[in-house]
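--- STAGE predict ---
source: upstream dedup step, 1 unique chain passed
mode: sequence only
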Amino acid sequence: MATALIYVPAPSKGNLQIGIERSLWGWKAETVAKGGTEQVLESLQPGDYLLLGHKGPNARVAAGGWSGARLQQLVVAQITGKVFQDTAPVWPDGVYPFRIRLNILEIQEGVTGEILGDDAMEALRLSANKQGAPVLQQGSAAVDGVIEAVTQQAADSELVDHTADRYLDIDGDLDQRARTLVRKEQQRLRNAKFGKSTRLQCSLCGLKLPARVVHTAHIKRRRNCTFNERRDLANIMGACVLGCDVLFEHGFLFVDGSGIITATAVALADPGLAGPVAERAGKPCLAFDTASSDYFAWHRQHVAQDAS
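--- STAGE serialize ---
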């Protein structure tokens, strides 16, 4: 396993945001043509990590000069496919034809050399001096440093993770580091949406239940979400394990354009499912509003229709 470290300068902030939203990064042909960069890109494999460090200090310093530096932002991603070439417009300031698809795992603000380690900071400094070319490291020490920091943040917030194993749908190889970051994401979403309540209301059946039996569920499936959609609280609802969670997840229940819970024909025709879905059908979904309506529409079009 390898980690590619790439520096993104301050003027490229807009490009970075586009890359996050599109789960994509790219390089100009002239950058790839220098210093063995093409060979580095070709060596990257699905499951490797890619770190984008944004807005650090002056790169024109001696080797090791970034060891105590601070990055304004760090994006941690896992590579999901081989490098490919495409000239379709993505970034407004030019063509970046050498591209790689990513699964964005984490975005951290104010990351320091103490978190990433001296070797990773030196790699980012070298990348800054090579117009953002990737600098390759074997292993994942830098990613481990981020995981440790994220884990500490979770501990400091006294977050309780009731759904640690729910969303393990990362493209590419599922390894421990990726799973850990996904779980921490789930913890923070749950805390932001529900706080530390000991009882939560299921958005589908309406029952108020012990928090441990109400899952933090994405309305639009997490694997199909952009990074921003994954962290949008409007895309999160409480779904109990007494049946609502699985019936919605597999599309036997959906929410119509008016916010009413509806059963699919397949579910109503099944002798085992007909009773449970009929109990819930016709009720208003408590998570439906203007902000969440597009997510429920996606579920109707891509999950419920498949079930029927």
